[in-house]
Amino acid sequence: MFPPAGRYRYEYRRHNRPAAIETDLLTAERLTGERIEAEGANRHEVEAELDRDSLIVRVRLRYTRGLFSRSASYEAAGDLLTGSISAMAGRNAVETKLGRFREVDGDLLSFKALIICHIRQSGRARFTGRVAIIDPATLVAASVKQTYQRLDSDGLKWQFEPAIGEREQIELDTDGRIVRRIDSRGDETALVAFEPAD
Question: Does 174 have pLDDT greater than 90?
Fold first, then answer.
């Protein structure tokens, strides 16, 4: 059920106009990727290490806007995700609790594909639990209660509630790749290219 290893390219559309391009590289040991906004002003970069259960054990992130940048590094240990954020003003320590399923979301679509993979492996039709979310702009991690719910018998359509009052629909192909996401505003993200890993 692990999504196919390879390079994924997603196009984000806001108000039916190109808003960003995300490129992810997923293997059994690593998830790396970046999302660049259409005007090129904001860049979100992530590099994560996976354990043999496909859970995130370490993650490094970088946010860039023009000449400004900040970076962060986190490690999952025990019940905590701990790390630090570095910017021009210095370095700040950050700590947040991991949920009982130890899921981490670095705000790339491949993180959500991994979470859905774990839910499908467990045989659950619904997941409600705390996920360690890393904000793409501030790079601050926080434990947030989220819900994923299967909408069809094949497990290819899911409803995702990132926060109270927000809903997204996520569609997978039969191999477990996220191929489409639509949020509550009607903005859409679609898989536009996939290259299998060598």
Answer: yes
